[in-house]
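Batch job 17 of 40 flagged for manual review because the log was empty.
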Amino acid sequence: MMRTHQKGGGDITTTSLSRPIAILHIGPHKTGSTTIQSYTRKFVKELASDGYEIPWVDDDGDHSLETSQVRLATCFLNKPFVHPLYPCDQRLVESAKTISKRNSNILISSEAFDRPDVKMTLLTEFLKPWNVTVVYVYRRFYSWLQSYHNQVGKSIEMLKTFLANSTDYLRANMNDFIVQEFINSTTAEYVDRFTSAQRYQRDFDNHDVVILNMHDKNMDIVQQFFCKAIPHADNTCNAVKNRKDDGETVYNPSSIT
């Protein structure tokens, strides 16, 4: 884990110490965010006992904890972008403001925050009541590329392409994928996603930016997140350490030989 500060070593003032904590997990995409969010839901009571609340609006099950997070994140993307599946829900912004009025810590996790079109001025103003820790996960390019390729291969549009060109190939393999022009766009996307930490270091002046390593051989990304990145979350950390195999896969790229 790497913890960085901006300007003058990021000295924390007395005023900032008196504020509650905001954990802003920004992904990026394909770095275990969905797994982290699923454990956030599973251990929501433990997080609450550690003093962390999560913005959530539940309309008869319409919003899960995870979808609420992305619906909050899209409120900070430049217009006219509208997420086709998870448009902004302003009630989640109000939910966060209510948490602020209680002077409580807040945890927000969405890989949508890795987008280059995040309105940073609006986001920093929104998070002003808290002392912010931005959490970011590093993943090597070729490991990320393989995961990204697998996701694209599962998409409906890619499936249509496969079927339309079934006389040429039945299934895209990794070699075909890399030699296609798609490599150019994915390289650019990787750069966009994985330079987001620099933007947050710049705009969240004097706040922590914690960089977790997805390739850490000693600790999986879930334990890194709850036990290292989140301050004073002892109950949640212990629950994570003692979790039993519940079918949730925690991927560690370093386990591949």
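Reviewer: the log was empty due to a logging misconfiguration, but the result itself is present. The longest strand covers residues 131-138. Unflagging and moving on to job 18.
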